[in-house]
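Handout for the seminar on molecular recognition.
Each group receives one record of this type.
Step one: identify the two inputs.
Step two: read the structure output and locate the region that could contact FE2/S2 (inorganic) cluster.
Step three: write two sentences on what you found, then compare them with the reference statements printed after the record.
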Amino acid sequence: MIRVEFVRTGYSVSWAGGRLVDLCDDDVRAGIPFACRHANCGTCRVEVEVGAPLCEPPDDDELQLTEGVFGDGPTVRLGCQLRASGDGVLRLRVLL
Ligand code: FES
């Protein structure tokens, strides 16, 4: 199980893993805003403060937006694209 900690809201929850957007849709206390949900807008950008090894690597569309458009480093991910699995802590800080 993954312990997901949302820095902005102070909320944390145990999560079996999968798509972060599904977790957030099921529980609004996560506090990550979404708009396009297709790696086009950057509304959902989060900094992974802890737990990067739990996350699947970003695909080309995500990298094009985070690195190419926003100039983000590798710790910034799109909440709408992020998938995670394993056991540990995943601490996310919303950038918007
Ligand atoms: S909601 Fe638009 S990039 Fe994630």
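Reference statements: The chain has one domain: 2-94. The longest helix spans residues 60-69.
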